[in-house]
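Sample entry (114 residues):
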Amino acid sequence: MKYMMLIHHGPDVGDFDQLPDEERQAVIAAWTAIRETPGVTPGQHLNAPETATTVRVHDGETLVTDGPFAETKDAIGGYLLFEADDLDAALELAARIPAARTGGAVEVRPIVEW
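Predicted structure, serialized as tokens:
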């Protein structure tokens, strides 16, 4: 089964470049190991939520709003895809993602294959 992991950064994510060198190296090592995990397809790191543009169509009219869909302290910072034997394997990988232990969260969703 394939899973998408939506990586939510907590409100205190801070600037990666401002982390102490030891913490920065630990994050880099964690991501290197995750990318090398069989079944992982790396995604992309997303820009800050305030750079988003949200599009809705209501009664045939396209409405464009600057900013994210919802006011929230957590924001999706990136994603990856993981092909795993079962949900337990996907949850194990999600727990290794640095955001899961630094005030954020990782949302794991099965991908519907048509």
